[in-house]
Amino acid sequence: MKKSVMKYLKMTGFIVLYMTVFFACIRLFSFLIEQGVQTSLKPVIQMLLDEWGVGIVFLFCVPVLIYILIFRIRKKDFIQFCRFKAMKIKNILGVCIIGLATCIFTSHLINLSFIARHIPQFNEYVNDAVRGNLFFTLVMMGTILPFCEEILFHGLIFNEMRNHLPLVFVLFGHSLVYMVFQPSPQVAVFAYINYIIYALIFIFTDSLWGPVLTQITGAIGLFSLKLLGAFDIITSWGDVYSGIIILLSGALILFMTFSLKKKPLKEIFSFKRDTSEIKKKQEVREGTT
Prior knowledge:
Blueprint: H1 2-36, H2 42-51, H3 54-74, H4 78-82, H5 89-109, H6 113-118, H7 121-129, H8 134-162, H9 167-179, H10 185-205, H11 209-227, H12 230-236, H13 238-258, H14 265-268, H15 276-288
Helix pairs in contact: 1-3, 1-8, 3-8, 5-11, 5-13, 8-9, 8-11, 9-10, 10-11
């Protein structure tokens, strides 16, 4: 009983640690920017933020470097813990198709008249992403940000939970953490559903590269559509057209996501914790002794 309690306390402690590091970087970055813009360096700071994505480096890359250091202290393999595993070509193509479908789904959803009017944060986010040069938009916002985001929320938090809790609880529970970072309750609901899809891709491919490639493909596709002026065309075609595309692309996302699974859902989401990897590690240790 005591061991069980300590196990869950340890899990919670590490999740709080990961979140604290992330929040600390946000607060430190905000403080430095507030101080910097009051000096003669304001134009330089603005240029670094808009054109070179220094904010992305500080808010996402720095925490990842700290997480790697934490794992060095814990004497654990960061890459192995996050499950950066090689994927089959078939699965790579599958997740890229899902990424393109999410791009189409999102671009039409956020341009519905109701969504654009009542939840402007979606379009504001896209506008912020394309405000700089192509390096800032496609490399920093479209690639580095989703990569580091996946490391925190799926590579670390999701895996920390999945090592101690039934997978079905982890699937619906870990996305609640992601909701904390959203600018409004409406956006948080969308983010929650979105992250469940990414988590399913992670579970079915058993590789963090699955959701990473999905996010990157979707983000670069979405920002590219904005840059090419496709948002104006989508808006001009009306809500009926957008609604049909949303339904079709949503169906494709679900179909492609569940086509990635290798086992029956009942087996994947069994309330018994999967111990196969633990047994494999024990066999390897026994073989080397």
